[in-house]
Design a protein that fits this description.
Nonspecific Lipid-transfer Protein, Chain A, Arc Repressor Mutant, subunit A, 17% strand, two-stranded antiparallel sheet, 2 domains, five-stranded mixed sheet
C-alpha cells in the first residue's frame, strides 16, 4: 500500500487537503451529499474508479471522520456509506468549486453528467433573484432513483426519496434535464418526444427550469473588464 503523503503545513487549508485532497475523495463526497449509497451504487456513479481505489478512499474518509458506514434497518439490511454531520459541511465547498469550474474556458459545457452531479449543479447555479419569493415542490425520477426538490425562502433543497405532496412529478433522463435547465430547450418539445413525462402542474416544472443560468466563462468576463478599463483610461 502506498504511503499517504501529507503537506506538513500548519495551515488549516493544507490539513483539509490532507483529508480530502486525494484523487476521487471529493467526488465520493459529492456522490453522498444527497443521501447514503451502497458501494455498488458509488461504483456505478464513478465508473472510472477501480474497486480497490474506491475501497481505499472510503477507508481514508472514514478514518478522517468525513463519512461512516452503517447497516440499514429491515427490510433493506444492506451496508451503506453516508457523510457525517461534519462531512456534510463540505457541501458549500463543492458547490463553489462547481461554480468556479464551470467558468473555466477549457470546461466542456453540455457534457454528460451523473444524476447526483446534475442535481447538485442546480444548487450552485440557481439565480438568487429568480428564486426569491418562489416556492416549489417537485419529485424527480431517473429510472429507479427518486429525489425530492423543494424551494422555500430562496433555498433549494434536494435529497433522495419521494416528495410529500409535490406540485408535479417528473420522469426523465439527465441529458434531457440538462438541456432543459441550461440549454433552455423547449419543455413542450421534450414532453411531445416522450423524453420527459410528468403529472401535475406543468407551470411548476417550467418555473423550476427557469431558475438556473450558467455564469460567463472567466475569459469573457476578464476581456470585458479589460475593455472597460481601456475605455475608461482614454
Amino acid at each position: 500500500m502506498a504511503i499517504k503523503r501529507k503537506y506538513d503545513d500548519g495551515c488549516a487549508a493544507a490539513h483539509a487537503l490532507d483529508l480530502v485532497g486525494d484523487r476521487w475523495a471529493l467526488l465520493i463526497v459529492r456522490e453522498l451529499l444527497l443521501g447514503p449509497k451502497r458501494f455498488t451504487a458509488l461504483r456505478s456513479s464513478l465508473p472510472s474508479i477501480s474497486p480497490n481505489v474506491l475501497t481505499q478512499r472510503l477507508n481514508d474518509l472514514e478514518a478522517a471522520s468525513v463519512l461512516k458506514r452503517r447497516r440499514l434497518p429491515p427490510p433493506a439490511e444492506v451496508w451503506v456509506y453516508e457523510l457525517t454531520d461534519w462531512g456534510r459541511e463540505l457541501e458549500p465547498v463543492i458547490l463553489q468549486l462547481a461554480r468556479w469550474g464551470v467558468r473555466s474556458p477549457a470546461f466542456l459545457r453540455g457534457a454528460p453528467l451523473g444524476v447526483d452531479a446534475l442535481l447538485l449543479s442546480f444548487k450552485s447555479m440557481v439565480v438568487p433573484e429568480r428564486a426569491k419569493g418562489c416556492e416549489l415542490s417537485l419529485e424527480l425520477a431517473f429510472d429507479q432513483e427518486i429525489f425530492h426538490v423543494a424551494l422555500r425562502r430562496g433555498r433549494l433543497d434536494i435529497g433522495r426519496g419521494a416528495s410529500n405532496r409535490p406540485q408535479a412529478k417528473i420522469a426523465t433522463d439527465t441529458a434531457t434535464l440538462l438541456r432543459l435547465a441550461y440549454g433552455k430547450a423547449p419543455l413542450d418539445q421534450a414532453i411531445e418526444s416522450g423524453r420527459l413525462r410528468y403529472t401535475g402542474q406543468k407551470a411548476a416544472i417550467q418555473e423550476f427550469l427557469d431558475l438556473f443560468a450558467l455564469p460567463e466563462t472567466a475569459d469573457a468576463c476578464d476581456s470585458g473588464a479589460s475593455a472597460a478599463t481601456t475605455t475608461q483610461s482614454r
